[in-house]
Write a structure and sequence with these properties.
Strand order of the largest sheet: 1-2-4-3
Number of strands: 8
Helix content: 25-40%
Largest sheet: 4 strands, antiparallel
Strand content: 15-25%
Shape: globular
Distance between the termini: 52 Å
Length: 191
Amino acid sequence: GKSDVWRYARAYGLSPPAATPITGDPVASPDFWRIVGYWLAEGVVTGGRKGGSGVVRWTFGGTEQHLADDVAEVLGRFGILIRSCPRPGNSLDVKGSSQQLASFLGVFGNNAGNKTLPDWVFLLPEGSVRELVRGYVEGDGCVERGWTRTTSVSLALLEGFRRLLARIGVVSGVMRTGGVRALPHRQLYEL
């Protein structure tokens, strides 16, 4: 039957149909929120082969295979098949097809400059907030001399993370920094 075909396709790394429903309740899992944090740092929702908008994509650095593996493991628990492959220029493309996940992530905006945290995110349990922050920092941050910092072209996103950090007792601030070399016309912000 049809399910046998998709079982075979999955065995060879092909995506299931975009309409494959999410199983379980990912929003209740703190691990899921870490994956959302990675997506806020490194992700985008794109059109599929048939022009839909159900392809969720992360682009990690070539040395960040552990992040790609984490995305695949966590989303796999909810029935979403994730594939990863190296890209030219020492990066790793990680993607999966899910209309439900694409619609959910779309609430956070798409493309770096348009991302933000919706107000309801501030109602998440503390464990989920910590994992969301952890995922974002692992995806777009660094630790230097004991300080953790992240950068973004989205002031709204960093202000949202500043508010989330305050909620869990972490003092932080957002400041304007220099422009992005590849995009000199865009302003860069640091948290």
